[in-house]
Amino acid sequence: MTSDSYFTLGFYVRKPQTERAEYPIFARISVAGQATEFKIGRTVDPENWDAKKHLCRGRTRRDLELNKYLEMVRAKLCDIHNMLIREKKPVNPGVLKSLFLGNGEKPKMMIEVFREANEHRKEEYERGDIVKATYQRWTRCADYMEEFFRSSLKTPDIPIKEVTSGILDDFQHYLRMKKDCANNAAVRYLRCVKNVMQYALAHKWITHDPFVGKKYQRTYSKREFLTEPELKAIMGLDLSELKRLEIVRDTFIFCCFTGLAFCDMKALVQSDIQEDENGVIWIRKARAKTGIMCVIPMMEIPQQLIRKYAEHPTVKTTGVVLPAITNQKMNAYLKEIADLARIKKHLTTHVARHTFASMSLCNNVSIEVICKMLGHNDIKTTQIYAKMQDQTVYKSMAGMRDRFDGIRI
Question: pTM score, two decimals?
Fold first, then answer.
């Protein structure tokens, strides 16, 4: 065996033992004095075969297709040879022949393994273990990585063993600069890649994790929420002449007083609302994102809104609690509502969830209870939503002020 980086390939025809009009074509591979040959599964009229140029002289469509096939065989053997050189594996005619015919052990390719992992994500999505957005992020990440390989490495795929720490850094840069991903989005994609590498480690397709020593930090931006006066300003708007805005406003207020994410509110049905033996009405619904149960005692305002739309055609035909429109249109109309209420904050449907967490905290609801109502599995997530307002901090200091204010030094 040899690791010589040079090989030669030739094609020739051999007269068959039986009388045939066409001769079979053979490929001959030579490496450092060693040689092997094999049939490539094609035949040619010997009158049209050019033994010096190793191709067919004919000009028919069949002859031209044959020459294209010979070029494809040559290109494929070159790819196999390059792969063996990259992986520092021994190169000899037998190995090249075996890999070409599909009899040898082919290296696991990065995108190939990624697509295989995505099949598992698809099964998880179909079982309901993950949401559609999560599955789509995995498939999108595989597409982005293939695009990155094509643009940076000039190949659609590389052996997974060749994925290095430097390639991961370049991929992160590609996501930020070419795909206009914010830092948090890029981090989520890289976590998908990390999961794939761990999957490959578990199957012993790689021996080293290129993510070792790497830490990708998410940035936590300021979470917008409404103060009590701002919330009352929106509730006080007379939108009776603008029905599209009235429905959007009421949907938003419902989320402000229940803490439901928009997708959970849109899917909320009557069976998710239950009354206990004490007459308290509760929302009990599993979150679409995590599957964790939200347990929320309903205040009077969301109950009023449910009664207000009880006869709405969408509510009666679909069984939902409110006739919510799409999230995209909601956010567009919320800008109009903010202008009418003279609120300069950028309103989105998720601001309602932040507002609920902030109001609950400001009204002395414990962080543990807020965590339960929001359906979080980690109290650290709730702490991101919960915002202390200045007025609450001022009131909390009232006892200390009464004790010490007026003392002269």
Answer: 0.57
